[in-house]
Amino acid sequence: MRCHLIAALLPLVIIAACESNKQYGPKPKRDNNSRSPSSYSTPSGARTSTSGMLRQVNLRRDFVSRSFSSMRPRYITIHSTQNYTGDAYAHARALQNRALGRIIWHFTVQDSVAIQHMSTNKKGNHADHDGPGNKHSIGIEMCEHRGNNRERTLDRTAKLTAYLMKRNGIPLNNVVPHYHWPRWGKHPPNKNCPHFLMTNGRPGRKWQAFKSRVAHYYQTIG
Ligand SMILES: [Zn+2]
């Protein structure tokens, strides 16, 4: 059963890897990420420790057994999978099985869990080939499979981002969408990713709302 399941999932993971510009499956019904601060899962004024924030993220580690170049992370790059079938576990299996070739990133987040695929001081390959996005940034993919709750996925991603900022001394200005890193030889060079946080294909109000959420959680870490 398990082999059949993997065989069924892998092609979908492959075609929907974030480097692709194509859209597959129905688009998400609506954006739901510009709530007021009062709707955040941790209220203003609450305080937690760095490890307390990590517990809220519900992080699982499933490191791929490959060697990577070293990196000192200076940025955090946010993506979405554009895969309406594969959940975080399917992406973890695909990375373990090298089904995505050289493509690799650090974390995949869905509504219930975040999975870490590689150390944050190792260089991934998720943003801009040999560019600074890959050389200096931690890559986070947000899941979009059917049935996954986007609001909870965004909230967990914001908490993970705040935790990583604190752990690595990364400022909010260096939390960027994949769009931020032009890809040499691609048209357009700046990818519409994460597409559901972009406005007309570029950062706008929805991206700012996400960054406000990250800032909110960062401020709760005492
Ligand atoms: Zn991306």
Name a few traits of the molecule.
222 residues, alpha/beta, Lysozyme-like, six-stranded mixed beta sheet, two-stranded antiparallel ribbon, 32% helix, binds zinc ion
What does this structure look like?
The protein has 222 residues and is of the alpha/beta class. It has one domain (2-13, 48-220): Lysozyme-like, CATH 3.40.80.10. Helix content is 32%, strand content 13%. It has a six-stranded mixed beta sheet with strand order 1-4-3-5-2-6, sandwiched between helices. Strands 7-8 form a two-stranded antiparallel sheet. Helix 1 (2-15) packs across helix 3, helix 2 packs antiparallel against helix 5 (150-168) and helix 5 packs across helix 6 (205-220). The longest helix has 19 residues, at 150-168. The radius of gyration is 16 Å and the shape is globular. The model is unreliable at 1-16 and 20-36 (pLDDT under 50). The protein binds zinc ion (ZN).
